[in-house]
């Protein structure tokens, strides 16, 4: 009998008693985590409390994190006798419905593609009642560090011999999403890549720590706003997993509309051109550059997208040369930034810059292969960018498997 079968044959566990130790409570003048967002409205956020049991099954043990429209909680599945993560969305946000639908779709794809196990799937979902409507909740397997956290642990730059292996596996995940699931993620960035936990020891220690010395929190009437618990670093990192599908699209391209974080926007997003899976390839290239070099290739972030777009396009022109005329012809907002003859309206913003000069970490053949890899992902025309699968065969990554 396997471990899952044995767990299923046991009776559900009783909820764990709450910690008896007194927590440290912050004053009313402190803004805690999700409270720092300018759009924060407590009525839109479900008031999760440690010890709560959802669906007579999932007991909340500690807060793992928060985002712009959700909070994440480590829970104990009392029925299956294991840890899970429950993501609780704010009321009525489109990302909640989108992620639910996309994860349902991905889960329905029958495939033995090796990239399928490198995509985070939903174990369950349910809704909680709220003051302004229901809160969508999605249950996942718990994961560990994010790629962004790993980068910070390495001082801002992940060593190439480590990064290449991660990059290969992330491309396999993208290949599954693009070719078999027909999903475009649209938000590929280090914070959305998390690592598998090889064992639950890290979680055990975090939970025992919360029970022995409850974490910081703020009490506002009946509502408690918790500070997230930082998980320990495991001895071994598992596989990188692509997460967070709240902005994803699935089905037959092309798609329309603004997606992607500001600094990761591809030319077709900036120029309002219908887009497809190749926007993920552009973002992947920018992410790999950032993780290796420690700096982002695009840095201009002004109060609005419209305000930062001229500088964003100028940086593209500096690094890639002028855009091809046939691409400009497809853009719905091309006239805002380019003259009729295709020249850029803000030439003063274009600087003399090259990828060669800005790549500082590698040398020799490794640098040349890295730059070729990046150049292939950062093509003006989306059809000129390789697929995720084609990138797995690039010499810069294949070198890892030849040693």
Tell me the layout of helices and strands:
Layout: H1 3-9, E1 25-26, E2 53-54, E3 58-66, E4 70-77, E5 82-89, H2 94-108, E6 124-128, E7 135-140, E8 143-146, H3 147-153, H4 160-180, E9 183-184, E10 193-197, H5 201-212, E11 217-220, E12 223-226, E13 237-242, E14 249-250, H6 267-270, H7 278-293, H8 305-320, H9 325-330, H10 355-358, H11 364-377, H12 388-392, H13 395-402
Parallel strand pairs: 1-11
Antiparallel strand pairs: 2-3, 3-4, 4-5, 5-7, 6-7, 8-10, 9-14, 10-13, 11-12
Helix pairs in contact: 4-7, 7-11
Keywords:
403 residues; alpha+beta; Phosphorylase Kinase, domain 1; Transferase(Phosphotransferase), domain 1; 2 domains; 6-stranded antiparallel β-sheet; 3-stranded mixed β-sheet; 13 helices; 14 strands
What does this structure look like?
With about 400 residues, this protein is α+β, with helices and mostly antiparallel strands. The chain has two domains: about 1-140 and about 200-225, 2-Layer Sandwich (Phosphorylase Kinase, domain 1), CATH 3.30.200; about 145-200 and about 235-403, Orthogonal Bundle (Transferase(Phosphotransferase), domain 1), CATH 1.10.510. The protein has helices spanning about 5-10, 95-110, 145-155, 160-180, 200-210, 265-270, 280-295, 305-320, 325-330, 355-360, 365-375, 390, 395-400; strands at about 25, 55, 60-65, 70-75, 80-90, 125-130, 135-140, 145, 185, 195, 215-220, 225, 235-240, 250. A hairpin with a 3-residue loop joins β3 and β4. α4 packs antiparallel against α7. The model has no long low-confidence stretch (mean pLDDT about 95).
